[in-house]
Structure formats: C-alpha cells, structure tokens
C-alpha cells in the first residue's frame, strides 16, 4: 500500500520558527512526536533556501527514525531535495495538477481549501488530502482566507471523501467540536509549537482526536 493511503492524519503539527520561543525545529518536532503527532509539516516562509534545505533535512532524519510522515509547505523543490513524503500547497502556490506531474504518483500532495469549489478542484487535480480552513480566525496566518467555521468544514466533509485535516485556530478548547464535523484530524501550529510543554500539549490534543474518532 502506498504511504499516502496509510497515513494517520489525527494530529498534524506544523512548524513555525516565530512561535517556538527560541526552540529549534528539531527540538519542537521531537517533543511533538513524543506527545503523539502523527504528521509533521515543515513550514518556513522567510529563510534562505539553503537554510530551508538544511532544516528540512534534519527533520527528515528525525521523522524517518520515528516513522512519521514529513510534508514540506510551499516548496516542491525542497520537498524533493530532502526526499520528504510530500508537499503541501495553497491556492496561490504551484497549481495542484502541475505539482502532481512534478512530484510523481507516490509523493503525498496536500492542498489548502477554504471553499467547496476549491476542495472539489483539488480532488480533481490529484490531491491526496486537503487542509481545510481556516476554521477560526488565527494570528498565525494573517493572510489566511476568512474563517469558514465548523459549518464550512462540515459542508466540505459532506462532499469530499479524501482525508481532511482541519486547520486554523484549533486548540484544546475547540478540538472536540471541530472533530465532530468529521475531519480525519486536526492541523495545528500555535497550540503545539508555542506551548510551554510541547509533548503534553500534543498528547492532550491527540487524546481528544482519538476520543472523538471512537465516538463515531
Ligand atoms: N493555514 C490556514 S490557518 C493556518 C495555516 C497555516 C495557521 C494555523 O495556525 P494556528 O496557530 O494553529 O491557528
Ligand atoms: Mg503555501
């Protein structure tokens, strides 16, 4: 079975150098995996390419050792260079259909969608999973589309059978409510990366996702 069909999407943790209180990406992600992160995304908007490759390479070694899929945000070239498991692209990035041609059939292709039309297009273009959001307003991504709320998530879930991770403003206070709308998991930045105890924060969210899936 191809990796992309076998991924556990429960707790998808996204890096953010600006939120991690001076801790390195590798320290943050190691603690997140200890707490139960099931997917890791390397997301870096500002660093020089050389630095990105170096950081992604270190995360590649860690995620390979721990058996957690690594996805690179935005940068298909960096994803391929470090042999990441996949790439995640937004609506202003490389079009999904072209990205699929470039990465081939075996790498994971994730696409951000905030409307049903975007979601359906991504499915058609060969996405393996969707990042749906922002569910709630979030300071982490100031240029994000307007929040779509739980109802927006539910609508997309009703029409799309691909794996969906919900993203945007998700934390321990609202994760259960988000999961009740039917995504396969939650994607978080600040709720884990900015936490004082990263492993405990990840563990708490993972437990909430597991509990909500058991109720289905
Ligand atoms: N895409 C949509 S919202 C968002 C991204 C990358 C940021 C989510 O960050 P947080 O801190 O989990 O709200
Ligand atoms: Mg992007």
TrEMBL record:
Pathway: Cofactor biosynthesis; thiamine diphosphate biosynthesis; thiamine phosphate from 4-amino-2-methyl-5-diphosphomethylpyrimidine and 4-methyl-5-(2-phosphoethyl)-thiazole: step 1/1. InterPro entries: Aldolase_TIM (IPR013785), ThiamineP_synth_sf (IPR036206), ThiamineP_synth_TenI (IPR022998), TMP_synthase (IPR034291). Binds 1 Mg(2+) ion per subunit. Its cofactor is Mg(2+). Coiled coil: none annotated. Its EC number is 2.5.1.3. GO terms for biological process: thiamine biosynthetic process; thiamine diphosphate biosynthetic process. One of its GO terms (cellular component) is cytoplasm. One of its GO terms (molecular function) is thiamine-phosphate diphosphorylase activity. 4-amino-2-methyl-5-(diphosphooxymethyl)pyrimidine binds at residues 41-45, 73, 112, 141. Condenses 4-methyl-5-(beta-hydroxyethyl)thiazole monophosphate (THZ-P) and 2-methyl-4-amino-5-hydroxymethyl pyrimidine pyrophosphate (HMP-PP) to form thiamine monophosphate (TMP). This is Thiamine-phosphate synthase. It comes from Chloroflexus aggregans (strain MD-66 / DSM 9485). The gene is thiE.
């Amino acid at each position: 079975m191809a990796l992309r069909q076998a991924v556990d999407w429960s707790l998808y943790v996204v890096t953010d150098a600006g939120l991690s209180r001076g801790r390195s990406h590798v320290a943050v992600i190691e603690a997140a995996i200890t707490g139960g992160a099931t997917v890791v995304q390397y997301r870096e908007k500002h660093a020089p390419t050389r630095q990105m490759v170096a950081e992604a390479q270190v995360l590649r070694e860690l995620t390979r050792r721990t058996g957690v899929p690594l996805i690179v945000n935005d940068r298909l070239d960096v994803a391929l260079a470090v042999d990441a498991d996949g790439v995640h692209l937004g609506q202003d990035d490389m079009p999904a259909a072209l990205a699929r041609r470039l990465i081939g059939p075996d790498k994971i292709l994730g696409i951000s969608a905030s409307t049903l039309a975007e979601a359906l297009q991504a499915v058609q273009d060969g996405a393996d999973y969707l990042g749906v959001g922002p569910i709630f307003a979030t300071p982490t991504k100031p240029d994000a589309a307007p929040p779509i709320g739980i109802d927006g998530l539910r609508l997309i879930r009703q029409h799309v059978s691909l794996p969906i991770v919900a993203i945007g403003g998700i934390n321990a206070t609202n994760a259960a409510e988000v999961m009740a709308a039917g995504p396969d998991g939650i994607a978080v930045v600040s709720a884990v990366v900015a936490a004082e105890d990263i492993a405990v924060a990840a563990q708490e969210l993972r437990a909430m996702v597991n509990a909500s899936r058991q109720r289905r």
